[in-house]
Amino acid sequence: MKRRQGWLFFIIFLLTFSVYLLINYPLQLGLDLQGGSQLTLQIIKEEGKVTRDELEAVNSVIDKRVNNLGVSESNLQTLGGDQLILELPGEQNPLVASRVLGKTALLEFRTQKEGTSSDLKTLQLQRLSIKELIEQYSTAEKSQNDNFLKVIQDDLKEIGQELNYSFTNDDLYGNLIEIKKYVDKEITNLFIKTDLSGKDLINAGRRQEQTNSNWEVLLTFSNSGGEKFAEITKSIAGTNQLLAIILDGESISEASVGNQFANTGITGGSATISGNFSAENARELEVQLKGGSLPLPIEIVETNTIGALLGSKNILKSLYAAISGLIFVGIFMIFNYRILGFVSVLSLLLYGFFNLALYSLIPVTLTLPGISGLILSIGMAVDANILIFERIKEELYDGNTLTRSIDSGFQRANSSIVDGHITTLLSCFVLFLLGTNFVKGFAATLGIGVLISLFTSLNCSKTILRFFTTYQSFRQKNLYLPRNNFSN
Amino acid sequence: MKYNLELIKNKKKIIGFSTFLIVLSLLGILYSSFNTSYKKPINLGMDFVGGNELRIERFCEEECSNFSPDSVLENLREISSNKNFINNIKLQFQNNNKLISIRTPYLSIEESNNLITNLDNIIGPLNYESKDSRLIGPKLGKRLLTNCITSLLVSLFVISLYITIRFDKKYALFALLALFHDLLIVFGIFSWLGILLSVEVNSLFAVSLLTIAGYSVNDTVVIFDRIRENLKSKEEGYNETIQLSVNESFRRTTFTSITTLIPLLSIILFGSYSLFWFSLALSLGIIVGSYSSILLAPSLLLKD
C-alpha cells in the first residue's frame, strides 16, 4: 500500500509538471494547422550520390538566400540526404522564394572572341525581336486575336530560317522559348571564360538608375577579384571586344570598355550590371549573388500552401474529433465496466496530458496526420484497460476478493499487453525511419502514444483503482460488474 | 454473458467467406490493372504521380452563384497562356458552389498562381485564407511511391520475423496468413473504390496499411496466446479448446476494436477532409482485422 501511495504522488507530480509545461511552452503547430507554405527542394546530381559536404554546401547557400530575402520565422532542414525542406509560416507567398531559390545563380565574366562583332550584332538583334515576339504573344493570346498570332508565327518562322534552326515543339509559345534559349546559348558561345566569377564577390546591392525607372545591380569584388576585373577590362579596353556578364549561361549584359582604361583597366573593385531590371528582379538577383551560386542545381519538387483560415479550421475539426472520440470511448467504458470504466477514463485524461506535455518537451510539431495518430492511440490506450478489466471480472466471477482480483488482473494481463503493442511499435518505427515528413508526424505521435499508454493503463489505472478501493463505499462488487452479468 | 461461437461447425463457411473476399479483391486489382485508364492495381493519387491540387473557397454574400464547371473551363481557356494543361484539368464545385476544387497536371508555382488569379477573375472574389494548394513534381511522386513500398515491405518483414520468433511455426504461418488476408482485402476495397468512385490513394493510404498490419497482428497474438495457455491446462479436445479460447477472448477482441473504431469514426465525421479516406481505410482494416483474428486465424488452426 505504501508503494502505491508513492506512485499516486508521482502521478500527481507528473500531471502538475505536464500542465506547467503546456502553459509555458505552447505546442508547435505544423503548417497544415497554422497556415503557410512548405517547399521541398531536390538537389540534382547527374551521376552518383549527393555527398554530405555537397548537401551542407547547398544548405548554406539556400540558408543565406532565405535570410537575405527577409522572410520571417522560416525554417530550413535537410531531408533524406538530397532534399531540403523550407517552411514559410503565415501568408508569405512562396512564389518569390521559389524564384530566388531555384536558380543556380552562377555568375561569370566573359570576354568576346576576336572577330565576332558582326555575328554578335545579328544575334543581339534577333534576341531583341524574339523578346518582342514573346511580349506580343501574351497580348495576342489574351485577346484571342488569331490574325495577330498568325503574324507572330510567321515572324518566328523567319527568324528560325535566318538561324538555320529547326523547331521541335508543337505550340507557338514553346517554340518561342526554345529559340530564345538557342540564341542565348549562341551569344554566350561568342565569349571566352575568364577566371573571374561570382566567387570573387564580397557583396551585392541594387539601386535605381538615374536616367530611367530601371534598376541596376551593384557588384563589389574582393581584393583579388578587383585585380582580376582590372586585368580583364585592361585586356579588352579600346578594342571592339565586349565584356559579358553571364548568369546561368544566359548573357544578361554586354558592354564595351572605353579606351581610357587601356593602361590600368577598371579599378576600384566594383561593377554594375544594368540590364533593364525591374525593382523585383534586381532584388532577386541581389539576394542570389549575396548567397553565392549553388554548387549543384536544385529543383523545387513540391509546394504545399495552406491558408491561415483553413489552418484554424483544421485545428477546430481535429479538436472536435478528439473530444468526441474521448467522450464516446468514455461512455462505452463506463457503460460496460462501471467504476473500472471510470478509472480508465481518468487514466485516459492523464494519458492525454502526458502526451501533449511530451510533445512540447521533445518537441513534436503537431500536424494533421500527427493528430490522427494521437486520436487513434486513444483507442489503443484503452485496449490495455479492457484486457485487464476482463481479467478482473473473470477473477471476480470466480469468487475471489476484490483486492486479489485487481492484483491478479493487472499481473496476468501484463505480458499480452506489452506483446500486443510491440507490432504496432515496430510499424511506427519503420514509418519513422523511412517515411516522409508528413508521415513521420503520424508515426511519432502514434508511437509515443502507445508507449505512454503502457504507463497510464498499467500503472496509473492501477494506482487510481487502489486509491478508490481504500474507501469502503467503493468496494461493493456490483460497482464492478454490470447487474445482468452479476446475476449469472 | 457467455459467447458461443460455433467455430468447429462453421469452419468451412468462414474459410469460404474469406476466400470469396480475397477473390473479389484480386478481381478488383486485376480489373484495375488492365481495364482502367490508369492501368495500375490501384488508383494512384497525386502523391505518387505528381500534379497540382487546389481547393479554395469563394466569398459569397448569402448563396454562391451557380457556375457550370464547363463554362469556367471555357473562360479559363480563353485567358490562360498555357493551353496545354487546361485540357487535362478537373474542376468541381462543392459545398453549395462555395468550395472549388481543381486538379491539373504538374504546374510551377508561377503557373499555379496565374491559374488562381484567372479563377479569381472568373468566379471571384476568392478567399485566399482558405486556400489549400499542393504541387508535387512527377520525380518526387515516383520517389514517394518507392519509399512507401519499401516501408511496407520492410515492416511486413520485421513483423513476420517477430511472429516467427515468438510463436511456433504453425501459429506464425496462420497469423501471417491472416495479416496478408487483411491487407489484401483493404487494398482490394480501395481498388474497387478507385474503379467505381475514382477514389485515389496517397501516401497516407500506405501509412494506414502499415498501421493495420501492426494492429491486426496484435489481436491475433492475444487470441493465439489464449489458445496456447488453454491447450496446456484444459482437458477438452484440441478443437474444443480452440473454440473455447476464441469465445473467452471474443468480448475482449471486439471491445478493443470498438474502442479503436470510435475515435476513427469521430475523425471521419468531424475531422478534416484530408483525413477522411485515411480513417476509412484504418476502420475497414480494423473491422477485417478483428474478423480474421476471431474467426479466420483460429479456424485455420482447427484439425479436420
Question: How would you explain this protein's 3D organization?
Answer:
The complex is a heterodimer of chains A (488) and B (304). With 488 residues, chain A is α+β, with helices and mostly antiparallel strands. In chain A, 61% of the residues lie in helices and 16% in strands. In chain A, the strands form 3 sheets. In chain A, strands 2-3-1-11 form a 4-stranded antiparallel beta sheet. A 4-stranded antiparallel beta sheet of chain A has the order 5-4-8-9, sandwiched between helices. The longest helix of chain A is centred in the last third of the chain and has 54 residues, at 308-361. The mean pLDDT of chain A is 85. In chain B, 68% of the residues lie in helices and 10% in strands. In chain B, α8 runs parallel beside α10. At the A-B interface, α4, α5, β11, α10 and α11 of A face α5, β4, α6, α8 and α9 of B.
Low-confidence runs of chain B: none
Distance between the termini of chain A: 33 Å
- Largest interface, and how many residues on either side? A-B, 81 and 74 residues
Largest sheet of chain B: 4 strands, antiparallel
In helices, the fraction of residues of chain A equals 55-70%
Strand order of the largest sheet of chain B: 2-3-1-4
Largest sheet geometry of chain A: 4 strands, antiparallel
Q: Would you report the number of β strands of chain B?
A: 4
Q: Strand share of the residues of chain B?
A: 5-15%
Q: Enumerate the strands of the largest sheet of chain A in spatial order, edge to edge or round the barrel.
A: 2-3-1-11
- How much is the average pLDDT of chain A? 85
Number of strands of chain A: 11
Span between termini of chain B: 29 Å
Shape of chain B: elongated
